[in-house]
Each structure stands twice: as structure tokens, then as C-alpha cells.
């Protein structure tokens, strides 16, 4: 039967599922989430005996106003419009919004968004992080209508200890943290006499001091801006021994946390490298089995006027067409000797009762418009593609086979 739009549609209705590649070709090494370091509460330092005297005021410099930069352990929340016109595309984002569960910045500085991938946000401002997420959504072909906010601030902290009711750790947020806010977060002062107490602030290796009595009188001292890593110690003694001990503990605790995080990252990198090596080995083994023809494949067979009569392997993960087979690199249509009017696709019947039944579709490729059908005619396993020879090619081969016999007869006659 001739190959037409109708016959192509009928032929393509036959069921066929292409062979699948092994799972190793789809899996990635990934970045498993590392252990989260827990925050350790600071115990109040021992309060030494107070001794009256004059306290010197040393106020820390103003760190200036800078936008908040997202850090490790911060939790971000992606919010999407209520009109879910892209529910299928934004399933992961909508689920996070409905459950009010955000994305925690992991040890590598990235968040992992379903169907999008990993987005590095650590060290970025909220606006820069929104741009990074926007670009990732666009790359993934997802509607980039969203808003980003920080649900939990966990990366930047100020510690407070000493003569306060509850020693604690106060996170830095989008708004600057003032000294009075930090002290209030610790429950306020726990002092018998404020005249002989001081607030000591340890910042970047320098110790600053504000007398509590002066702090209570002056609003500008209460509004001193704190920065990430500051340690505040409310002391009742003029000597710095106890305060220095407290700050030394904070420095040691910070070092332990950094060492633990480094060890966790090293373990994660090793785990990822082992996983990557395992996947590479699986892929190499599959390719070697493929080279030795030890993998179950589906084939189509090309015979007749082709450059090389061979079997054409149907590709993984997709369906091949007649045009794919005719113009494959290993064997293709020989336009010099092949007859473009007589290109056939032969397919055996799938019905056991018609075991010898064969359906033949004829493509007349002399009309270039008909060749569009070749790009739509899907191939099935064990199809046979046959290209007949040109009439002149048939006569040429007859003459080529007769010529040696004629020459031999002529020579024999001359000799006799």
C-alpha cells in the first residue's frame, strides 16, 4: 500500500515502548544534606565579688547599615500566587507554601528546590537570592512568579551571658540588632547594684565596655548596633578575668563548630565522590556490554540499494522514524543506484494466526513532499526497509555479468 498520511497514522498506532537506559544514566551524585550543628546554650559566668571604682566607657564603633546576607542554616520560604495556574509545574513550591515549610540553606550554601535543582544563595542579599532563584526557574521552564522571604534567621548570631536572667543566643535579622534588644532577649539584667556593673562587648579581638549606670541614662548607648559574632557579657567586677574567660569559651565554641562543619563537608565530598565513581563504573560497564552486543536491543534491517546492508539499532528512550534509518551514518539510501519510487517498509503481523502475514508500505520519494511522511513513519522492532534498484542499474548489472562470458567466448573463437 502507498505511504500516505492515513496509512502512516494507522501504522503508528501499533504499540511500542522504546528500550530504557539504565538508572545510572539518570542518577546524579547529588549533595546529601549534612548534619546540622546544634546551638549550645551559654551558661552564665561566675559572678565575682564586686568592688567599687570608676568604670571607663569604651563604645564599639558603629558597623554601619548593610543588607542582610543569607547564610548557612537560614530557612527560606518560597511563596507562589494563590491562583495556581501552573500547579503541575510548581508542585514543589506550592507544597512548601501550603505546609509553611521552607528550604534550609545547606552546608554547601545552596537550597534544593524540587524539579529545579540546587540554587546557591549563601552570601547573597534577599534581592540577589531572588534573582538566582528566578534564573533557575526560567532555565527549568517553570513560571517564575514567586516571592522569597527568610522564615528563620540562624546563620548570624550574638551571644549574651553574665549577669542576665537567661544567657542566650540572639539571631540577627533584616533589621539591625540594638544592644537593648539583645539584653531584653536575655531577660534583662540580674544585678544587685547597677552602679558597679558593666556591659562588655567582645568584637573582632577588641574588648569594649559600657557601664550599666551610664547605659541606663543614655539612649544612644542603648541603641548601640551589634554585628554578627559579637559577644556581650554583663559583668559585676572591674577585672576582666571572668569576661575574658567567657569570651575564650565563645571563641573555643566557634572553633569547635567550624571544625565540625569542615569535617561534615569533607565527609559529604567523599560520599559524593564515591557515589560519582559508582555511577561512572555502572555507565562504563553498560557501554562495554553495548560494544560486545550483550545488551538486549531492538533492530530494524536495511536491505537492497543502501550503502551498507545492515541492521539499524532503534535508539533508547525515543522512537525512530524511516528518515532516521535512511540517513543513518552506518547505512543510508544510495541515491545513485536506488529507485526512490520503490522504498518499502515491511512489517510482519503481530497476530499469531497471521504468522506469515506481511504489510508493505511504499514510499514514492521522487516527490519531495512525500518525504515528509518518512519523518513521521515510526519504525518498530524487526521492520525491514527495502530499496529497489533503478532499471538502468538492473541492466548495468546484467551487462556486467555477461561481459566476461562474451569476452571469453570471443577469445576462444579466435584461438580456434
Automatic annotation (TrEMBL):
This is Sugar transporter. GO terms for cellular component: cell outer membrane; pore complex. Belongs to the BexD/CtrA/VexA family. It comes from Ruegeria marisrubri. The keyword Transmembrane applies. Its main location: membrane. Transmembrane segments: none annotated. The keyword Acetylation does not apply. It comes from the Bacteria. InterPro entries: Poly_export, Poly_export_N, SLBB_dom. Gene3D superfamilies: Outer membrane lipoprotein wza domain like, wza like domain. The lineage of its organism: Bacteria, Pseudomonadati, Pseudomonadota, Alphaproteobacteria, Rhodobacterales. GO terms for molecular function: polysaccharide transmembrane transporter activity; porin activity. Pfam families: Poly_export, SLBB_2.
Amino acid at each position: 500500500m502507498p505511504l500516505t498520511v492515513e496509512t502512516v497514522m494507522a501504522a503508528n498506532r501499533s504499540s511500542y515502548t522504546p528500550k530504557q537506559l539504565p538508572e545510572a544514566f539518570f542518577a546524579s551524585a547529588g549533595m546529601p544534606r549534612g548534619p546540622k550543628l546544634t546551638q549550645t546554650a551559654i551558661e552564665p559566668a561566675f559572678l565575682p565579688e564586686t568592688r567599687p571604682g570608676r568604670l571607663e566607657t569604651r563604645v564599639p564603633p558603629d558597623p554601619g547599615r548593610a543588607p542582610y546576607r543569607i547564610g548557612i542554616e537560614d530557612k527560606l520560604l518560597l511563596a507562589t500566587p494563590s491562583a495556581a495556574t501552573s500547579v503541575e509545574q510548581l508542585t514543589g513550591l506550592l507544597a512548601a507554601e501550603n505546609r509553611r515549610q521552607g528550604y534550609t540553606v545547606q552546608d554547601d550554601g545552596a537550597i534544593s528546590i524540587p524539579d529545579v535543582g540546587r540554587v546557591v544563595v549563601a552570601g547573597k542579599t534577599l534581592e540577589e537570592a531572588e534573582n538566582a532563584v528566578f534564573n533557575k526557574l526560567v532555565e527549568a521552564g517553570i513560571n517564575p512568579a514567586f516571592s522569597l522571604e527568610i522564615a528563620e534567621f540562624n546563620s548570624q548570631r550574638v551571644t549574651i551571658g553574665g549577669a542576665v536572667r537567661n544567657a542566650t543566643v540572639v539571631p540577627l535579622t533584616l533589621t539591625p540588632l540594638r544592644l537593648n534588644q539583645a539584653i531584653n532577649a536575655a531577660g534583662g539584667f540580674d544585678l544587685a547594684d547597677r552602679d558597679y556593673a558593666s556591659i562588655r562587648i567582645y568584637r573582632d579581638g577588641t574588648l569594649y565596655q559600657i557601664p550599666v549606670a551610664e547605659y541606663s541614662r543614655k539612649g544612644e548607648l542603648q541603641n548601640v548596633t551589634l554585628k554578627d559574632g559579637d559577644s556581650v557579657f554583663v559583668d559585676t567586677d572591674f577585672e576582666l578575668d571572668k569576661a575574658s574567660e567567657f569570651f575564650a569559651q565563645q571563641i573555643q565554641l566557634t572553633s569547635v563548630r567550624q571544625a565540625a562543619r569542615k569535617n561534615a563537608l569533607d565527609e559529604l565530598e567523599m560520599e559524593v565522590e564515591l557515589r560519582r565513581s559508582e555511577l561512572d563504573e555502572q555507565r562504563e560497564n553498560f557501554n562495554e556490554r553495548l560494544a560486545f552486543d550483550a545488551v538486549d536491543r531492538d533492530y530494524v534491517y536495511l536491505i537492497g540499494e543502501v550503502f551498507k546492508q545492515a541492521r539499524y539499532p532503534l535508539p533508547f528512550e525515543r522512537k525512530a522514524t524511516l528518515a532516521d534509518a535512511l540517513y543513518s551514518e552506518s547505512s543510508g539510501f544510495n541515491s545513485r543506484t536506488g529507485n526512490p519510487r520503490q522504498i518499502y517498509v515491511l512489517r510482519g503481523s503481530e497476530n499469531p494466526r497471521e504468522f506469515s502475514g506481511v504489510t508493505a508500505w511504499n514510499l514514492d520519494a521522487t516527490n519531495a513532499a512525500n518525504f515528509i511522511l518518512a519523518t513521521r513513519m515510526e519504525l518498530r522492532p524487526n521492520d525491514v526497509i527495502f530499496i529497489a534498484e533503478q532499471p538502468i542499474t538492473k541492466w548495468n548489472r546484467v551487462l556486467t555479468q555477461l561481459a566476461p562470458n562474451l569476452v571469453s567466448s570471443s577469445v576462444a573463437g579466435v584461438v580456434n
